[in-house]
Each structure stands twice: as C-alpha cells, then as structure tokens.
Amino acid sequence: MENQNIAVGLDIGTTKIVAMIGRYNEYNKVEILGIGKSKSLGVHRGVVNNITQTIQSVQQAVQEAEDVSGIKIQDVVVGIAGQHIRSLQHSDYITRNNSEEVIDAQDIDALCNQVHKLVMLPGEEIIHVLPQEYKVDGQSEIKEPIGMYGGRVEANFHVVVGQVASIRNIGRCVKSAGLNLDRITLEPLASANAVLSQEEKEAGVALIDIGGGTTDLAIFKDGIIRHTAVIPFGGNIITEDIKEGCSIIEKQAELLKIKFGSAWPGENKDNEIVSIPGLRGREPKEITLKNLSKIIHARVVEIIEQVYLEVKNYGHEEQKKKLIAGIVLTGGGSQLKHLKQLVEYITGMDTRIGYPNEHLAGDSDSDTTSPLYATAVGLVMNSLEHGFYNSTPEEEVISQEEQAFTDTVNEVSEEEKEARAKKQQRPKKSIFDRWADKFKDFLDNAE
Fold first, then answer.
1. Is the CATH number 3.30.420.40 carried by domain 210-351?
2. Using CA atoms, how far apart are residues 87 and 115, in angstroms rounded to an integer?
3. What are the domain boundaries of the chain?
4. pLDDT in tens, 269-306
C-alpha cells in the first residue's frame, strides 16, 4: 500500500502503548487503517523509567499496527504527558520594520520564536507555544492578525514546559525502536482534538483525560486553549487502593474495578458479594461490592477535586470565563460506572463522556471509538493537520525553533544538521515546477 499521506500517532502511556495509522478519506474524515496495542512496562506516571522495556513495548505495538494495515511505519508523532509538565501564561511583542506592509505568517513566526527563547528553569524545555489573543497597535482581542496593517504586534501565549531529560528519554525510545520522531504533542491537546467539537471549544469546556498514571486537563474558551495541567494520579492508583484495601493481587484488583467497580457507593446493596479465588489452593476471598465502591469513591473524589481546583485556578467562577459546555471525560478511566454522575455532583457542571468519533470515518471499528483511544486518534489527526506524513513530503515547513527542539530530542549530530542546511540552500522549486517535472516523468515513462 502507498505510504503517501498516511500519518502515525504513538501514544506512550503508563498502562498501554498504542500505535495508530490513519489517513483522510474522500470526505475529509480520518480513516483508521491499523492499530497496535501493547502493555506498557517501562513507564510510570507518564515518565519513562525503563528504556529497554519501553522500547520493546513500542516495537510490539508498532509491529501489530504494521501487520494489521500492511504499511511500514517510519515517522511518528508522539504524545507526551507526565508529572513534569507545567504550563504558564506569557505576553510578548515584536516591532515591525515596515508598518506599511501587512502582517504575514513570518511576523507571527518571529513572535512565536521569540517566546521559544524564554529562559526556563534548569533542565526544562518549551514544548508548545500557543498564541491566544493578539493586539495590533494597541487594538486588542484580535484572533487573526495576518493581513492587517500595524507596527507593533503583541500576543498572550500559553506556554507548555517539560523536563528535557524526560522528553529526550521518549525520543531515545522511539529512535531505538527504529522510528523517526517527527513531532511531540501534549497529550491533553491531542485528546481534545479527537473528542471536542468546535462549538464546545467556543462555549468553554474542560476536557479531563483520565489515563492509567496521570489525569490530563485542557480548558478551552472562545475556541482557544486557556489552561493545561497534568495531575499525577490516574486509574492505576484506584487499582492500587483496591489491592491494598481487599488484600488481593493487582491483576484481580484491576478486573474487580472494571467488572464491578462503581464511583457511587450508594447504589450497591450490602448483600452483594463477589468471590475471588485464593492463591495456590488458599480459601477464596469474599468482597462486598459496597466496600469496593467505597474504596473507589474515596480515590475518585480526590482526583476530581484536584482537577476541579485547576478549573477554579483558571477562573471558571468569573462570569467572563464560565465554561458553558461543562466537562468532557475521556481516557480509559472515564469508563468507570457512575463517574459522570459523581463529577456532576462534585463540580455542579454538565458532564458527558467523550468518544473520539467526532472526526472519524463512519465505518470505524467500535474499538477505535472507545475513550481509551482518544489520545491516539488525536495524535493521528494532529499529524495529518500538520502534514507530518509517514513519508515526509518536500513541502513540510517547520519553524527553526521547533526544528532545534526536535533535533535535541532526536540527538541529531552536527554533520546531519550541516547536510540539511546545504539541502535547504538549494533553490526551492515552485509547486508548478514540481508538477511540470512530474508530468515530464509521466510522459517519459509512458513511452
């Protein structure tokens, strides 16, 4: 099968690693061609803590996706989360040399690149610079300044920052698994792309992605990302509590949570009991579902309250910043019974479960549209939108700062950088020239 315009998302999570291959169909919807999943063994709370095991898990997921789709994977877009991620607000401006010319994309790039030069704490690196509103010559609340006249362009930015070592470790795993790392994307942004509609982003919405090791939050208002946070708790900590509280092994605790778990203890009767086989011929254990729900409830309330604190920090209680569309829950942890009702009860906000079927082709497999795969679907979409295809086309444009960041992660040598610089110095062909060349080749081959 042709590799052209095929994108690959790699979600390196705490409980699972997912490789997903997709492309746009004729209706501009995302068609998933293959999906591979493996148990994540070397990742703890979104951070790689065992390189060898992570490489094996990545290779396993990629192999499975290749077998299903018949496509060889080369380039991937990788999601990043983890407790080392933090975000900050920053304002910056540029003064243009010639205010008689209209503002173009280069001016906006120059402004973004200036933010990339911000001095961070030792060991930190900027992952994303996301412009919010612009100001041109003092005129505020401009969403799109390109094409306007003005001498001074200002912007408020949402800057996402992470630990260089953690980011480089992910880059190392991807490279050692025989893949090229094209781009790193913050996972809550990828999930938001997959499960939120434009109307929700305009009205104001908080996306809560409950994963195995972390719970990611992304807040949108007026169609713009306003706040992101990564909370270092997820579904695994609930499993851990069940394991401790019921004195059973992790595998049994996970099964109990999935099959019988509920976030609302009031709905279980006292006489509902589940029997768990004992180890190596020991007596089976009897656990009441009410107790199980109480254990789950206590931990889930803690996670929700931490997330709600972040929502309050953003300023949800101010009239202007109100999140009218409420909360959208996604990720594996969102499948817990009665979680939606509990979130509504604690926060007083409308809540729904987010399925990544908003942008998927109609005939997509029901597995793919599960909240479990929201991040992977979002990464594929991100890759398709930015043109990071599995076989990199000539037209791909990437800012110098982003290139430098990707080079740092990929540990690119100086020789490779020089070779690339020489290649870029060659005169670029216009689209028409390239088309003419292709047409010429076609005629030559036709003979």
1. yes
2. 13
3. 210-351
4. 778 899 888 888 888 888 999 999 999 999 999 999 99
